[in-house]
Amino acid sequence: MPPADLASVLQTYLINLDTSEDRLHVMYGRARSVGLSFQRIPGILGSDLPLERLEEVDIASYEKWHGKALNPGEVGCYLSHISALRRFLASGAEFGLILEDDANFPENFQLLIHSIIANSCCWDIVKLSSFHSGTPVNIIALEAGYNLAVPLSRLNNSNSILYNRVAAKRLVRELLPMRLPFDHAVERAWLYGLRFRSINPIPCDADTGMESEIGYSYQLKFPVYRRLRCFLFRIRTELMRICCGLREIFKIFVLRHRP
């Protein structure tokens, strides 16, 4: 797929707060270095949200499932991603790449994106960055030494995610109200009948030297006795992730070896 064809099917969006012009300047340089252009999505500042927007957050479920007090920065990040997904759906593009303004890219990023889109029959969401390995099981060899993989454990981080229109439409419908941080919520794709994939090895750094603007704090974490339901929720989530991942891998294996 030549670059001109890629531009006709892919739209890229960058989430960036109005107060973060320095980060926007850095991202213009990083994107330009790999031949990428993007539309800016004004980031939502959680601390400035009007009361009506807080109705989009299920605070009780967030505290129960995440084991922390609600972080306004997480709310702003979450709703910013929903806004970016809506912008993608309003476009005519088949695929949407949604970036946060601390994303970074390997030199062969364009080649990788071409290869992922060439195999679009095998995924709905592809995470390109992560804090954790994700315990990937490779299913398709891509260009430049990468593989499309089914992750069997959590990845987290959401600075670079590729979607098709089916995934975007379903997530906009299913992910409100907010009950988890966005990177946790989007990985529970099996709940929405979506094929969630990662890239092995992970191509986009999660830690690119920019300090997070979300405002993480250990002070938000509840004491252990208040986090028991969170621990149970996470155990259940990981077991479901493994089971659903193995089921998808089995289906792929059967299809490949069907006479």
Search tags:
alpha/beta; globular
Q: Distance between termini?
A: 30 Å
CATH domain class: Alpha Beta
- Multimerization state: single chain
Within the CATH hierarchy, at the fold level, what is the topology?
A: Spore Coat Polysaccharide Biosynthesis Protein SpsA, Chain A
Number of helices: 9
Instruction: Report the sheet with the most strands, covering strand number, pairing sense and barrel closure.
Output: 8 strands, mixed
Question: What is this structure, in a nutshell?
Answer:
This protein has helices spanning about 5-10, 20-35, 50-55, 60-65, 70-90, 110-120, 165-175, 180-185, 230-255, and strands at about 10-15, 40, 95-100, 125, 135-140, 145-150, 160-165, 195-200. The protein is α/β, with parallel strands linked by helices. It has one domain: Spore Coat Polysaccharide Biosynthesis Protein SpsA, Chain A, CATH 3.90.550.
Description:
With 259 residues, the chain is an alpha/beta fold. The protein has one domain: Spore Coat Polysaccharide Biosynthesis Protein SpsA, Chain A, CATH 3.90.550. It has nine helices and eight strands. The chain has helices at residues 3-9, 21-33, 51-54, 59-66, 72-90, 109-118, 165-174, 182-186, 228-256, and strands at 10-16, 39-42, 95-100, 125-127, 136-141, 147-151, 160-164, 196-200. It has an eight-stranded mixed β-sheet, sandwiched between helices. β1, α2 (21-33) and β2 form a beta-alpha-beta unit. α4 packs across α9 (228-256).
